[in-house]
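If you are new to this repository, start here. Below is one unmodified record pulled from the training split, so you can see the exact layout before writing a loader.
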Amino acid sequence: MSVIKTHYDNMPDGREVFLYTIENSNGVQAGIITRGATLNSFVCPDRNGVMGDIIVGFDNILGHINSGTYTGEIIGQYANRIGGAGFTLSGKKYNVTANEKGITCLHGGSEYSSALWKAIIVDDDAVEFSYHSPDGEQGFPGNVDVRVTYVLTDRNELEIHYEAVPDRETVINLTNHAYFNLGTTKNGSILDHELMLNCDYFTPTDENSIPTGEIRAVEGTAFDFREFKKIGRDIDGDDVQLRQCRGYDHNFCVNGEAGTLRLVAKVRDEKSGRKLEVLSDLPGVQLYTGNFMDGEPGKDGIGLDKNFGFCLETQYYPDTPNRPEFPQCTFKKGEKFKSLTIFKV
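And here is the target side for that same chain:
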């Protein structure tokens, strides 16, 4: 096991961005950059032992900055969407950044994902990234101290440990926004990847991708991934939920007890032979199929077209602060947000 720190690139204002590469005894590597504490690469073998990077992304910092697709970044203070860009806590209304259509707060106004995080090597298999979010940033109440630790094991498990502590009551919902392509981006579309989700229900959305409040059974719908099926099998079906999002961009309710580590998803790519398992202790997972990729140049100059990557963002449900019937993610002063997500190849 080893961790190597190298210079990755410079921010437009000259600040350095560093790359931390963790390698296990099997030759599997995870590369994380300090801008956004971003998972920039995850290199693992195909069925023939040929190593390949299964993270869709960019070769330089301007690619990340100019993209707006959150490729591999840590998302916070509130992952996913808050409807009306506002919520009420203890009788007080908070207005947060409306950075989507001017009406929705998406991914916390991009605060955590665009920040330069501090990083320290804590072991020969782990790197800890930290960030201080000041009170009122993007409209969210409270100073919040955040730590995200990446650990790569010899079982080819990439663990992402999240911790966050506020100094006053606030909402916290953290995730990683990695786009995966098990065939690497040279493979093109991920629509032939087979996906299984350990989810009996999902949360339908309105035309602005905000949950309606309904928790709908997946049975008999295009959202039924309880058995392996190709991601693209039903993606173009005549379902208003798919049409308004140009594909899947929905929260699924993970079976089992929230707070306990359990299987979320399995993905397999017949062409390369690679497989991915996702485990988490959070109540939900967002399946996103890269519906708005528009051909921008990614790694090796390859154009990132629609459906070139898929995301499995473990999370609390979207718009939870405005939906008391959803599992809640409000944390009081000194109360710790703590979570674990594992990506296993």
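Two things worth knowing about this chain: The mean pLDDT is 97. The two ends are 17 Å apart (CA to CA).
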